[in-house]
Write a structure and sequence with these properties.
heterodimer, A: mainly alpha, MetI-like fold, 0% strand, B: alpha/beta, Rossmann fold, Alpha-Beta Plaits, 12 helices, 14 strands, 29% strand, Methionine ABC transporter ATP-binding protein (chain B), ATP binding (chain B), AAA+_ATPase (chain B), ABC_transporter-like_CS (chain B), nucleotide-binding (chain B)
């Protein structure tokens, strides 16, 4: 048994390790950028709705529509659909660099929605109390809205991250590698069943770990 | 000082226009406690929220110390709001912050120097009696304690005015009592002008100098608390006063007694006013007073007593007895059997 394991590691260890790194790169970078875009969009979705601080019907409807349109497109189609845009932004359409743009386009609107629902949970009264104390709106956004919903934000980001890991599996189609790609190319196309099992197992561990971490962190941030 | 001039607030929803507040003018003198009382839906909450422009009046002007809030730019309004404290029925604390953070964060965000923040938090937590709760989270506190934190948070900005939006409505009677005592103490020690709204006459009775009664968006009666207590003009005011005295008489008794003589409400204001007068009535006139119900209570500054008395005698004699009582500082009003039910 141990001989088989060491044989497997000799044969596939480097590939799997590289795939893990690629997956982490893709997820890490695109998650970071998606949060930087999605969180402000979520805040805008909350603040521009009717009877909120920055009420703006036109902007609110437009943003809503754009997010819905993007979210309607499956990632595998989005990946090819926005190739020219990807080329324009990243300069390339292949490799890890080439897949970050579609991953962000895919994830940022999703995060915006998750942030929106998290921020909407915040008690209107607390926001009002801060308005009544003469605190500036931008401070209220950070110190009340985001702070009070941080537990839900963490849960939302956990969901988004797991979705992102799923999306990276398709990154192989543009040569970006990653665990999903490894499982597909070797496990499926070349019938190396062991590789498929191991990558699937690794993905399960990764997702389980992430979800547990998200749950624990969220619970710790929650004080009520 | 707070001055509201002809404040109106209308809401449009669908095709209907609702007047939540209808042409209300109120003046709250510096250092006084002013109560606005009304049943739910009377518009009192909208009214208090218009004082710091949490809701903008559709029409009318709001002045705080002669600054017209309604004409200020957003930036100036924010600056002015820092001088207006507000507490709420639902406390509105940060759930994710400790007691210390709940008071310190708004101070930081409104530009209070770091060194001073700590001193202020300590000072005001001491005043509200929660010095040992710096690190507690709101979820670990009782309702009364949460309201104390909210009061400390408001006071820490050292405001000139404190607005209370049903601040005691979510609290049990004992806690209500202690919060009212605290508000009274704040008013006395710091000279902070307080405008509070409530649906409990008890709150008005205990701490207010002046009161306005609201109904359907309008102020239907306003004046010194003692005047409203002794001579409520409107049905709603009468009901509020009655809610404290519980001196409704059985119908059968009233109709029987009314056959001979009349039933009157006597209000005694202050320590000594008129107290022997009732006893003298039977000596001086051919009238036998019998007390049907009675109560004495403490208004903010003075005791206030109310008796329901049957004056048994001929009409002429009882009229003279009433005149005599009034001469002696007793407020006399005809007894009204049943103040008609509020339709709300």
């Amino acid at each position: 048994m141990s001989a088989r394991i060491s044989e497997f590691i000799d044969l596939w260890g480097v590939d799997i390790w590289e795939a893990i790194i690629e997956t982490f790169q893709m997820v890490g970078i695109s998650l970071l950028i998606s949060v930087l875009i999605g969180l402000p969009l979520g805040v805008l979705l909350v603040l521009t709705r009717p009877e909120k601080a920055l009420e703006n019907k036109f902007f609110f409807r437009l943003l809503n529509a754009v997010i819905n349109v993007i979210r309607s497109i499956p990632f595998i189609i989005l990946l090819f659909f926005i190739l020219p845009f990807t080329k324009m932004i990243a300069g390339t359409t292949i490799g890890v660099k080439g897949v970050i743009v579609p991953l962000v386009v895919f994830t940022a609107p999703y995060i915006a929605r998750l942030m929106e629902s998290a921020l909407l949970e915040v008690d209107r009264g607390v926001v009002e109390a801060y308005e009544a104390m003469g605190v500036k709106t931008r401070h209220i956004i950070w110190h009340v809205l985001v702070r009070e919903s941080r537990s839900s934000i963490v849960l939302g980001l956990t969901i988004a991250t797991i979705g992102l890991i799923g999306a990276t599996a398709m990154a192989g189609l543009v040569g970006a590698g990653g665990l999903g790609d490894l499982a597909y190319r070797y496990g499926h196309l070349r019938y190396e069943v062991d590789v498929m099992y191991v990558t699937v197992f690794l993905l399960i561990v990764l997702v389980q770990g992430l979800q547990s971490f998200g749950n624990v962190l969220s619970a710790r941030l929650k004080k009520d | 000082m707070i001055r509201l001039e002809n404040i109106t607030k209308t809401y449009k929803s669908g095709g209907t226009v609702t007047k939540a507040v209808d042409d209300v003018s109120i003046q709250v003198e510096k250092g006084s406690i002013y109560g606005v009382i009304g049943y739910s839906g009377a518009g009192k909450s909208t009214l208090v929220r218009m004082v710091n422009l949490l809701e903008r009046p559709t029409d009318g002007k709001v002045f705080i110390n002669d600054i017209e809030l309604t004409s200020l730019s957003t930036g100036k309004l924010q600056k002015t709001r820092q001088r207006i404290g507000m507490i709420f029925q639902s406390f509105n604390l940060l759930k994710t912050g400790t007691v210390y953070q709940n008071i310190a964060i708004p101070l930081k965000l409104t530009g209070v120097p770091k060194k001073e923040i700590e001193a202020r938090v300590d000072k005001y937590l001491e005043i509200v009696g929660l010095s040992d709760k710096h690190e507690a989270y709101p979820s670990e506190l009782s309702g009364g304690q949460k309201q104390r934190v909210a009061i400390a948070r408001a006071l820490a900005h050292e405001p000139e005015v404190l607005l209370c939006d049903e601040a005691t409505s979510a609290l049990d009677p004992d806690t209500t009592e202690s919060i009212l005592t605290l508000l009274e103490q704040i008013n006395r020690d710091f000279g902070i002008t307080i405008l509070l709204i409530t649906h409990e006459m008890h709150v008005v009775q205990k701490i207010c100098h002046e009161v306005a009664v609201m109904e359907n968006g309008k102020v239907i009666e306003q004046g010194r608390v003692v005047d409203i207590f002794s001579k409520p003009e409107t049905t709603t005011s009468k009901r509020f006063v009655q809610s404290l005295f519980q001196d409704e008489l059985p119908k059968s008794l009233v109709s029987r007694l009314k056959e001979r003589g009349q039933i009157v409400n006597l209000s005694f204001i202050g320590e000594s006013s008129g107290s022997p007068a009732l006893a003298l009535v039977s000596k001086k006139f051919d009238v036998y007073p019998s007390i049907l119900a009675g109560n004495i209570t403490q208004l903010k500054d003075q005791p206030f007593g109310r008796l329901v008395v049957h004056l048994d005698g001929e009409a002429e004699e009882t009229a003279r007895a009433v005149a005599f009582l009034e001469e002696n500082g007793v407020v006399v009003e005809g007894y009204v059997q049943e103040v008609e039910a509020h339709v709300g």
